Recover the amino acids of this structure.
C-alpha cells in the first residue's frame, strides 16, 4: 500500500470567473489543481470554473453533474507515494456538441451566456492542437473544414472553439462589456498567438472591423503547461479503489507540474504565482524547450515504440537502446536549437525528463501520444531539425523518427499487428500508402509534399529526405533493435 496524503476540496462559491473549453484529463489534473490550491490558500472565491466539452466527453459532463462536480486527482511521485486531492473548483460542466439525447442547443446557449457574464474574466482552453482548426505548419485557418464552414455560415450556433470565442466576444462587445482574456493551455508553439490567429481569421469572415477590434482589444497570453496525465485505464481505477476512491471522474498523473504564463491579463487573474505558476514576460523559450525536448522525445518513443509493439513510455525507456536514443536526441538535436535564459541547465532538464518518463506508477500508452502526429510534428521535430540541418549538423534521431512516423501511419506495426491511426489527416495518409505501396522512395517523397506538415525547406533538403528513405528501409527490413544497433544512430556524432 502506498503512502497516501489526502487533501479535501474547498467549498464551492458560485463565483465563476473562468470558462474553460475542453474538459479532458489534463484540465482536471493541471489547471483545476492550481485553482483549487489557490482557492484554499488565498480564500479568494472569485475563480471557480465552468468547464465545457464541445465534442466528445458528454459522459464525463453527465458524471460530473451526478457527482456534484467533485472529483479526485491522484498525483503519483512513484508507486509508493501518492497525494489524493479532491477538487471542487469546477462548479459547472456543460456539453455543447451535437448529441440530440444530450441537450444540444441548451448547453451551448448556457455556455455563451456564461461567457458573456461580467463575472467571466478569463477563458482557458485545452481542446488539443486540432481543436484550433489551423494548418499545423503555417497556422492558417482551415476555412474548408466542414465545422469551420458551419461557424462561418451560422455564427450564432458555433460548433468549434474559435467559433465559440468569436460569438462570445461579439456578444460582449454588443453588450458593452470588456473582452475576457483568452489563455490557451495546449501544447502548441506560441499558443496564444495561434489562438489569436484562429479567432481573428474566423471573425474576419464575419466583419473586418470586428476582427480588427479583437486584434486590438483581446489579450491572448501564451503559456507553457507541463504535467504528464495519461488517459485513465481500468488498472488506474482499480488502484484507486484499493485506496478507497470509487470515482469515475478521477484522474491520475505524475506529481511534477509546471505552468509558465505570459503575464498579460487586462481583467485580472488569480494570484496563482503563490502556488508555483511562473509569470513571465516571454514564454517562448520555455515552450520551445518543452515542445522539442519533452514532447519531441515522447513522439520519438511513440512511433518507434508502437512499431515494435511496446505499450507504454515506461516500457520504452526501460530499454537501454531507446533511453540512449532519447538522450542523444535531446542533447544533440533539440538542445542546440534552443535559446534559453542564462542559467538554464538543459543537461539537467534532459535527465529530469528521463527520470519522469521512468515513473513506474503511470501507464502512459504510446498509442495515445502517437495520436494526431500531423498536428504535433512541426513544433516537436521539424522546425528544430531544419535549424540543425541549416547549421550543417546531422539529425539521425529525428530522421529515424520521421521514418517511423511515416511507417506508423500505415496502421500496422512491424510485427503485423493492426491499430487505428487517429489523426485528422488519416485519410490522406491511407491514400498515400495505397498509392505507393512498397515503393519506399516514392512514399517518403509523397509524405514530404504535404506542406501542411513539412516546411518547404525541409522537404527540399535532398540529404534529409534520402536519409529518411534509408531509415525507413532499415526499420522495415531489420526491425527496431537492429536499426538502433546497426544503423549507427546512437554512435554518430557522440
Ligand atoms: P483528453 O483526451 O482527456 O481530452 C481532450 C479534450 O479535448 C476533451 O475535452 C475533448 O472534448 C477536447 N477536444 C478534442 N478534439 C476537439 C476539437 N476538435 N474541438 C474541441 N474540443 C476538442 O486529453 P487531455 O489529456 O485533456 O489533453 C488535452 C490537451 O491538453 C492535449 O492535446 C495537450 O495540448 C494538452 N496537454 C495535455 C497533457 C497531458 O499529459 N494529458 C499535458 C500538457 C498539455
Ligand atoms: C504528450 C503530451 O500526448 C502527447 O502528445 O506528449 O500530452 C505530454 O504528456 C504532455 O505535454 C506533458 O506535459
Amino acid at each position: 500500500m502506498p503512502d497516501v496524503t489526502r487533501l479535501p476540496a474547498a467549498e464551492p462559491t458560485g463565483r465563476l470567473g473562468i470558462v474553460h473549453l475542453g474538459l479532458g484529463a489534463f484540465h482536471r489534473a493541471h489547471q483545476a489543481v492550481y485553482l483549487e490550491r489557490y482557492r484554499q490558500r488565498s480564500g479568494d472565491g472569485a475563480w471557480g470554473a465552468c468547464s465545457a466539452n464541445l465534442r466528445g466527453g458528454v459522459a464525463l459532463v453527465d458524471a460530473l453533474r451526478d457527482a456534484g462536480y467533485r472529483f479526485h486527482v491522484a498525483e503519483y511521485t512513484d508507486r509508493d507515494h501518492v497525494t489524493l486531492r479532491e477538487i471542487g473548483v469546477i462548479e459547472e460542466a456543460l456539453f455543447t456538441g451535437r448529441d440530440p439525447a444530450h441537450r444540444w442547443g441548451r448547453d451551448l446557449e448556457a455556455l455563451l451566456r456564461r461567457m458573456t457574464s461580467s463575472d467571466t474574466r478569463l477563458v482557458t482552453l485545452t481542446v488539443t492542437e486540432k481543436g484550433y482548426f489551423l494548418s499545423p505548419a503555417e497556422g492558417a485557418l482551415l476555412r474548408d473544414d466542414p465545422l469551420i464552414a458551419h461557424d462561418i455560415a451560422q455564427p450564432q450556433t458555433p460548433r468549434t472553439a474559435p467559433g465559440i470565442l468569436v460569438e462570445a466576444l461579439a456578444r460582449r462587445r454588443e453588450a458593452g462589456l470588456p473582452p475576457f482574456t483568452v489563455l490557451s493551455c495546449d501544447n502548441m508553439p506560441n499558443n496564444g498567438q495561434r489562438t489569436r490567429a484562429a479567432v481573428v481569421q474566423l471573425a474576419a469572415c464575419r466583419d473586418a472591423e470586428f476582427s480588427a477590434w479583437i486584434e486590438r482589444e483581446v489579450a491572448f497570453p501564451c503559456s507553457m503547461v507541463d504535467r504528464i496525465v495519461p488517459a485513465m485505464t481500468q488498472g488506474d481505477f482499480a488502484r484507486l479503489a484499493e485506496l478507497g476512491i470509487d470515482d469515475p471522474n478521477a484522474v491520475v498523473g505524475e506529481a511534477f507540474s509546471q505552468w509558465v504564463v505570459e503575464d498579460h491579463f487586462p481583467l485580472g487573474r488569480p494570484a496563482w504565482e503563490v502556488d508555483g505558476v511562473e509569470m513571465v514576460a516571454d514564454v517562448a523559450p520555455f515552450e520551445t524547450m518543452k515542445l522539442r525536448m519533452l514532447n519531441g522525445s515522447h513522439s520519438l518513443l511513440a512511433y518507434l515504440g508502437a512499431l515494435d509493439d511496446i505499450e507504454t513510455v515506461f516500457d520504452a525507456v526501460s530499454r537501454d537502446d531507446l533511453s540512449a536514443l532519447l538522450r542523444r536526441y535531446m542533447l544533440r538535436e533539440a538542445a542546440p536549437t534552443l535559446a534559453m535564459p542564462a542559467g538554464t541547465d538543459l543537461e539537467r532538464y534532459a535527465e529530469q525528463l528521463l527520470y519522469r518518463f521512468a515513473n513506474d506508477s503511470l501507464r502512459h500508452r504510446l498509442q495515445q501520444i502517437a495520436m494526431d502526429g500531423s498536428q504535433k510534428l512541426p513544433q516537436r521535430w521539424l522546425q528544430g531539425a531544419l535549424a540543425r540541418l541549416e547549421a550543417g549538423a546531422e539529425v539521425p534521431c529525428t530522421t529515424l523518427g520521421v521514418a517511423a512516423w511515416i511507417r506508423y501511419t500505415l496502421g500496422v506495426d512491424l510485427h503485423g499487428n493492426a491499430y487505428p491511426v487517429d489523426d485528422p489527416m488519416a485519410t490522406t495518409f491511407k491514400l498515400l500508402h495505397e498509392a505507393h505501396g512498397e515503393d519506399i522512395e516514392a512514399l517518403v517523397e509523397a509524405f514530404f509534399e504535404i506542406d501542411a506538415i513539412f516546411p518547404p525547406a525541409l522537404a527540399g533538403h535532398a540529404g534529409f529526405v534520402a536519409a529518411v528513405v534509408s531509415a525507413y528501409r532499415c526499420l522495415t527490413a531489420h526491425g527496431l533493435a537492429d536499426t538502433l544497433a546497426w544503423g549507427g544512430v546512437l554512435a554518430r556524432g557522440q
Q: What stands out?
A: The mean pLDDT is 95. The chain has two domains: 3-280, 284-492.
